[in-house]
Amino acid sequence: xxxxxxxxxxxxxxxxxxxxxxxxxxxxxxxxxxxxxxxxxxxxxxxxxxxxxxxxxxxxxxxxxxxxxxxxxxxxxxxxxxxxxxxxxxxxxxxxxxxxxxxxxxxxxxxxxxxxxxxxxxxxxxxxxxxxxxxxxxxxxxxxxxxxxxxxxxxxxxxxxxxxxxxxxxxxxxxxxxxxxxxxxxxxxxxxxxxxxxxxxxxxxxxxxxxxxxxxxxxxxxxxxxxxxxxxxxxxxxxxxxxxxxxxxxxxxxxxxxxxxxxxxxxxxxxxxxxxxxxxxxxxxxxxxxxxxxxxxxxxxxxxxxxxxxxxxxxxxxxxxxxxxxxxxxxxxxxxxxxxxxxxxxxxxxxxxxxxxxxxxxxxxxxxxxxxxxx
Length: 375
Hints:
Helix content is 50%, strand content 19%.
């Protein structure tokens, strides 16, 4: 009898132990779902608070890479400002090896785009080859060595294509995406698609269509935020103000189309001369403004001089007519100790006064403002 009772007790203990393990597994899974939901809320908040397209794409890439444990990622998006007829990778990638001889572009008329707009799912390249046979874009995509391809869909519109790179091996073993992970990256893609759509609308509404520089109102909104941040972080913030010298003569001599041509080339030189974190704006007419983040007066002067020299050395050809042009500039610098202005308008006005000094002193030069004093 004793042995029988002992065996029964062991069975009861074993059953209790098994029940506890199942309960612990359910609790652990429940806690993981709660954690993942909190992660999605943070990701959504991050996407919603980033209104500029380039920083947003960078944020999407890093989040996708971290969540899916991949070595790199890239996004194909349409360049709305250039009226592009396809989704381009451009410089929207991180950790992916790019072949410089290949044009990373997917035309809007591609079979792949049509398939994505009709299917709300994520795919491996192998799966796509089966679903969309004969598509010409697969050879290009294969050079990116993708582990997963994720369309960014919003209301049956394809806003982009997220390409996940190689997965990071765990314990030396490559792991396939689980259904849970596929659902997770698809949720991230849905959030990203809304954010990309909104950022694209803001990009178009805040950009001068002729020069592709930011408009004045948007520039001031961003400058106010940057000024507050510079004050809090005790950083320098520089403003450059430029004006094309004798611009009226181009319109009067060759017509307004020539004037537009000049504005476009000057804007491109300015934009190509600054960093991604800086911002260039068409202030109005032939005037341009540039914001240089975390930049002191010496750094600002180097940038302004580089722009001035590049424009001076440029020879433009319009309808077989060679044209030379110059530009005048002014600089103002926010500093907690030396120039603690809290108004974006005041800081820009200081640069404008310095610009006026350059024009009064012969043009084609850069002048610096020191608070309200010009030197």
